[in-house]
Sequence to fold (474 residues):
Amino acid sequence: MKGIISYSTYIPWLRLTPDTEGWENPFERAVANFDEDPITMAVSAGRTCLKHQDSKDIKALLFCSTSAPYAEKQNAALIATALGLNADALTLDLGGSLRSGTLGILTALNMLEAYPHGSILVIAAETRLAMPRSTLNDSIGDGAAAILLGRGKVIATIEHHQSTSSVIYDQWRESNSRYTVQWEDRFVADNGIETMVVNSVKTLLADSRLETTDIKRFAFNSSNPRQSNKIKNSLGATNNQIDTTIIDKIGNTGSAMALMELCFSLEQATAKHEWICLSSYGDGVDTLLVLTQEDYRIPNQIIPNICQLITSKNTIPSYEKYAHLKDLWPIAESVRRPEAQPPSVPAIYREQEKNILLRAGQCNECNYVQYPMQKICVNCQRQTSYTIIDLSNTRANLYTYSMDYLAGSLDSPLVICTINFESGGRMLGVMTDRALDEIYVGMPLEMSFRKVTEHQGVKSYFWKAIPMRIKRGE
Fold:
C-alpha cells in the first residue's frame, strides 16, 4: 500500500493581526521574517516531517513554489542538502501554478512506481507579494507544508483524483515583477475557482460513486471565507465539513495552501476510513480523494499541529514595520553604515558541511564536542578522528547574549548569543524570532535555517537560534 507516511506544516512566527496599527482587518495573516524565504521555510517544514523518519530512504525531493528565490538555479538542491538527504536523491523544482503542490503529490505517486523501496518528499512554500493596500495583499499569507509519500505503514491513501487545466487570467505575475496581480473579483469568482472547483468535485464524486455526505472534510485553497462558503453551498455541504481556520488565521499561502489544508484535515481526523476531498485551484484544478488509514494522525508530541503553530505568534506592531520587513517601500536609515561584504561563492561551496548542514565533531579520544570541527581537539590536544554530530536537530540553551543596536539589522537590535547544545558543544550565533522582554539566560532554543546575506543575487544561508515555539510535552 502506498500513501502518506508523514506530514508537517510551518507557519512563520510574525503576524498581521487586528492589533497591528494600520492593518484594519478583522483577520490575521502569517508573515515571513526578513531572514525567511521559501527555501528556509521548506527546510523547517521538511525537518519536522522527517522527524523519526530515515532521511536516507528518500529517493526524491519535489519543491513546489511560485515565489522561489532562484529562477535559474535549483532551489530543491539546496533544500535537500540542508535536510541531509543523500546526494544521489533526485531533486526537482515545480512552479508556475498555484496548484503545483497537488501536482507535486500526483507526480510523487507516479515516481513511487520507479522507487518501490523508497519514499518521495514533497514540500511547498510561498512568500508571495502583492501591491500594498490591494485586495490581494489582504488575502496572501506565508507558509510551508511537507508531505512524505511511500509504502508500508501509511497514514492515508490517495484513492482517486481528477485534474483539469484552464486558460484564465485571474492571478498572475510576470517573470520580472515582484508583485502578483489579479483581475476583477467577480469575474474571477464566477469563471474561476468557484465554478471549476465545484465541477471538479462533483465529477470526481460521481466517478467514485460517493455522495457529498460521505465526505468528512472538504478543503479548498480559496482566497477568503466567502469563496469557501459559496463553494460549500453549491456542493450542498455543511459547516461541519468545511473549516476556514487557515484562510482566517494564516491567509492564502499559494501552492502551499493545498498541502496545508491536507495536513490540517488529517490532524482533525477522528477515525480510520474517513474521506477527505481536497481541491487545489490554479490554471485549472486538481481534486484528490484521500482516505485515512489505521495510523491516521501523528501525535502532537511528535510534530506540532497547525493550531499550536497558529497560537505561537507575535504581532507586527504596525503596517509600516511590515512594509519595512518586506521592502515594500524605502525607509531612510538614521545611521550611515558600511556596505555589507558580498558572500564568497568558493566559501559557500567549500564549507557546506559547516554552514548548511551544521555538523560538529565529537573527539573519539575524550568525547569533547566542538563546532566547527578542528584537526586537533582543543580539549585533549590530540590529533584524532571525530564522530559527526548533527547540531541542526539538537536543542540548546542560551548561555549569554548581547544586543547590538547599530548592526543595521532589519530586526533591530541584533541579538548575538552564545548557546550550549544539549549534545555538547558551544556556538556563537544570532537569535531571531525573539521578543526582547522574554529573553533570559538558560532559555531553551532550537536551530532554524535562515537567510543571512544577499549580494548580486547570491544568497547566503546559515543557522540561527530561535526560542522554542512548542515546548516539550505541549
